[in-house]
Structure formats: structure tokens, C-alpha cells
Amino acid sequence: NADAFYARGGIYLEIEDYERALRDYNKVIELEPKNSGAFVNRGLIYHRTENYQKAIEDYTAAIKLNQAENLAYS
After folding, report:
1. Which of 7, 13, 28, 71 has the most other CB atoms within 10 Å of its CB?
2. What is the pLDDT of residue 72?
3. Which is nearest to 13 in space by CA: 65, 48, 51?
4. Which contacts (CB < 8 Å, 24+ apart) does range 4-11 have?
5. CB count, 10 Å around CB of 53?
6. How far is Cα 46 from Cα 26, in angstroms, rounded to an integer?
7. What is the pLDDT, as a whole number, of residue 68?
8. pLDDT tens per residue, range 2-56
9. Does residue 34 contact residue 64 with C-beta atoms inside 8 Å?
10. DSSP per residue over the chain, as a string?
11. Nearest one of 32, 60, 35, 33 to 46, comparing CA atoms
12. Burial status of residue 14 (CB atoms within 10 A of its CB: 0-12, 13-18, 19 or more)
């Protein structure tokens, strides 16, 4: 269930366990490739770990899926 992975990924993101959060958001995107929130959160992980190219790619994907994804613009 993508919702469970999304929720757990959020917990890992909050406690800065980026490796586990990344695995969960990858799973969400695999199960729901149009989940713009998962792209935003995965982009945030890439941003925080200084993988800026991947962050930009994920933020761009999120905006293409949902132009109202405000966090993708930051």
C-alpha cells in the first residue's frame, strides 16, 4: 500500500533517516508514479544530501504532475 510507505517515509524524513526515507519514497513512486508529493519529498532528501541534480529532477516531475505543489518551488 503506497499510503503506508508514504507515511513511514515522512517519519524517516522527519528524523533525518534519509536512507530509509528514500527507500520508502522510491516504493511510493513505483506504486503510484503520479504521486507528486512523493517526488517533492524525495527531492527534499536529495536536496538535503546535496544531490542537487536529482533534487531538481524530482521537483520538476512534481510540478509537471501538479502545478500546485508549492514545496517543489522552494
Report:
1. 28
2. 62
3. 48
4. 5/31, 6/35, 6/37, 6/38, 9/38, 9/41, 10/41
5. 8
6. 12
7. 80
8. 999 999 999 999 999 999 999 999 999 999 999 999 999 999 999 999 999 999 9
9. no
10. -HHHHHHHHHHHHHTT-HHHHHHHHHHHHHH-TT-HHHHHHHHHHHHHTT-HHHHHHHHHHHHHH-TT-GGGG-
11. 60
12. exposed
**CA–CA–CA angle 65, 67, 73 (5° rounding):** 110
C-alpha cell at 61: 516531475
**Cell numbers standing for residue 26:** 522510491
Write down the residue that cell numbers 522527519 correspond to.
14
Amino acid at 64: K
